[in-house]
Specification:
By secondary structure, the protein is α+β, with helices and mostly antiparallel strands. The protein has a domain of 70 residues: Alpha-Beta Plaits (2-Layer Sandwich). Helix content is 10%, strand content 22%. The longest helix has 9 residues.
């Protein structure tokens, strides 16, 4: 379970408009270079700003809709039980970054059913791979403890041709109070095509979203 805490950095999801970010000190591009930021910034989420990652008002011109187009619950997880560790997978918030598949194919394999083998590698390797899941779709439990959040400073990283990777307990304010099971890390749509807005669902792959600036 995510612990309760006070949030200093806030992301406000505006209706059919940008992400308004307040009090963020650490904004980074896909090369992990820090970008100068201000007390309040507006980040594009329609995918069409000419000034990415910042909003330039294009969302109004193209009549962007920020509505969520799926009714899948955000907290539905499936457990894959191994000899020493249980891996929890939440398809509803997966951004399909495929980090897990590329880093630990003995555990995560899209060609096998079930696609997760929780006994396929050493526990430490599994944990390290799960910690690299940007969306929070993967978590794990050992004994009575369920682990999904980590001790990191607030940061937003702009994935190349992909979503905003949010870490470090940044509060997400949404009119429908949509919350990822992980309050510490999640991914937000930047291409404008996700059916699970404001969260990324991997749609940027399908439309070949490009962002040369990042």
């Amino acid at each position: 379970m995510s612990e309760k805490r006070e949030f200093r950095v806030v992301i406000e999801v505006t209706k059919n408009g940008p992400l308004i970010v307040k009090n963020l000190d650490n904004l980074r591009n896909s090369r992990n270079e820090q970008i100068k930021t201000k007390l309040t910034i507006a980040l594009c989420r329609c995918g069409h700003s000419a000034n990415k990652p910042y909003c330039d008002g294009t969302h109004a011109t193209i009549k962007f809709s920020g509505e969520r187009e799926t009714d899948k619950p955000l907290d539905r997880e499936r457990a894959y039980v191994g000899d020493e560790i249980t891996i929890h997978d939440n398809r509803a918030i997966c951004s399909h970054a495929t980090n897990c598949v590329s880093e630990l194919s003995s555990v995560f394999s899209l060609d096998k059913r079930p696609w997760i083998n929780a006994s396929g590698a050493e526990v430490d390797s599994i944990i390290n791979t799960i910690k690299g899941c940007p969306s929070g779709a993967l978590s794990y439990s050992i004994g009575d403890g369920h682990y999904r959040d980590y001790d990191r400073e607030p940061m937003i990283r702009i994935e190349k041709n992909g979503p905003y990777q949010v870490t470090g307990y940044i509060e997400l304010k949404h009119e429908l109070d949509l919350q990822s099971p992980s309050r510490e890390h999640y991914t937000l749509c930047r291409c404008g095509e996700s059916k699970n807005k404001p969260f990324c669902d991997g749609s940027h792959h399908g439309i070949c979203f490009k962002d040369e600036k990042n």
